[in-house]
Amino acid sequence: MTNELTNIVVEILPRFEGYVYPNEASAHPLWGFLIVLYPYITGLVAGAFIMASLVRVFKVKALEPVYRLSLLTALAFLLCATLPLLFHLGHPERCFEIMITPHFTSPMAMFGFVYAWYLMAVLLLELWFDYRQDFVKWSQTTAGFKGIIYRAFTLGVTDESDAAVRLDMKMGWILSIVGIPSAFLLHGYVGFIFGSIKANPWWGNVLMPIIFILSAVASGIALCVFNYMVLTWIRRHTVDMRCLDTMGMFLFYALVVDASVEALDWIHRIYSAEEGFNVIYYMAREKLFYTLSIGQAAIGTLLPLLLLGSLQLFRKHVPELVRRRMYFASASMMLLGVLAMRWNVVIGGQLFSKSLRGVMGYKLEFAGVEGWLMGMVLLGLPFVILTVFVKLFLSERLPSSGHEPHVNLPAAEKA
Questions:
Q1: Is 296 a member of any domain?
Q2: How many domains does the chain have?
Q3: Residue 122's pLDDT band (cuts 50, 70, 90)
Q4: What is the dihedral of CA 157, 163, 168, 174, to 10 degrees?
Q5: Which of 23, 235, 373, 384, CA to CA, is 20 to 30 A from 227?
Q6: 376 in a structural domain
Q7: CA–CA separation, 103 vs 192, rounded Å?
Q8: For residues 57 and 414, what is the distance between their CA atoms, to the nearest angstrom?
Q9: What was the pLDDT predicted at 160?
Q10: Quick one: which of 350, 70, 81, 94 has its CA closest to 190?
């Protein structure tokens, strides 16, 4: 009787969807909402730096009004990039052990060195070379606490000759070139961690690092569009439509490449239909329907593609006010779509049962270290820091249409 019952169960069980063995029913994902925010914030850093590099390295003059804003955005988010990890660890004071006792075979440990290199040797130095002239001038004309800050940031280097300015520009150009692969490495290793886990059918994919990098570039450019439009609205400045149209063009190109690679990944999964495909399909239409089908695919990809694509084709026939609203809506939807993509990868990849027949549950709490309230605080903190940076370093440097660009030029070249 027992053998007959076992045979019946073995025969019927494959026909069920969503089945989880009893010993897996109480399992809970080890990585929560904070680990979703970690690759999201680092991706915004990489994309914002790429936007600034378009001006410094690739000489896209139309983007000069957002050059410094992009660099300050990258710095503000980079300063907060490690916070989700530190809060998730429970003992953030132990993070220094990564530096003291390096473990070169661990991708997560190597992140500490990549982060320190990118923050100290690339981004801060590039900002200093770009701002050095202004620090000298502001330190001479500004009194009070801000004047003390500007004098401290000069580091005692007050040479304003044309030779010194040219050296600043050359060093900034070199650091921008070095910073591009560093930005890719900073975020690409996150995709490497997920892609190297072969036992998970969602994560074990060689395209995972590339998908993470491409989505990071798209989300970072979208963040720069969002910040630029919000800042000009708050300050009641006129939006430079030539700059905004160029940003929208690069945003469209980045989204096309990102969507194409992600579509290729899904086409390959559907065609190969390897072990675990059934549970992926079940999650896509049941457990992750709202975040994957609605959030990532429809809101984060298809709608921005339609809006930005139509602007590339019929830009001259669309009024400026409508174009601004379409750019702002596209950037906002892309930011939400990439956040949904990070959720689907991090959380969705942990909901598989070991039987590969069903999925487990995950409930996002309100409070607590892994709650959405803490996540929103950590996600809002970079914007607070960016506001301080704008007050200190961009108070008079966000020009409206027709004003002098941000990038410093020697007097001879300006003439």
A1: no
A2: 1
A3: confident
A4: -140
A5: 373
A6: yes
A7: 17
A8: 19
A9: 83
A10: 81
- The domain that contains 63 carries what CATH number? 1.20.1630
Six-digit token pair at 381?
């903190």
**Between 311 and 160, residue with greater pLDDT:** 311
Per DSSP, the residues of 314-356 read HGGGS-HHHHHHHHHHHHHHHHHHHHHHHHHHHTGGG-B-TTS
The DSSP output letter for 266 is: H
Residue 284 in any domain: the answer is no
Residue 381 pLDDT greater than 70, yes or no: yes
Q: Classify 273 in phi/psi space as left (phi over 0), alpha (psi -120 to 50) or beta.
A: left
Those residues whose C-beta lies under 8 Å from the C-beta of residue 185, and which sit 6 or more positions away, are: 114
Res. 173: pLDDT tops 60: yes
Which own/partner pairs from 86-93 qualify as long-range (CB within 8 Å, at least 24 positions apart)?
87/34, 87/369, 87/374, 87/378, 88/31, 88/32, 88/34, 88/35, 88/38, 88/369, 88/370, 90/369
- Which amino acid would we find at residue 343? W
For 49-90, the pLDDT digits (tens) are 999 999 989 999 999 999 999 999 999 999 998 898 888 877
Number of CB atoms found within 10 A of residue 236's CB = 7
Angle at 242 between CA 406 and CA 327, to 5 degrees: 105
Whether the per-residue pLDDT at 294 is higher than 50: the answer is: yes
- What mean pLDDT comes out for the span 177-194? 83
- The answer to the question of residue 60 being in a domain is yes
Q: How confident is the model at residue 358 (pLDDT cuts 50, 70, 90)?
A: low
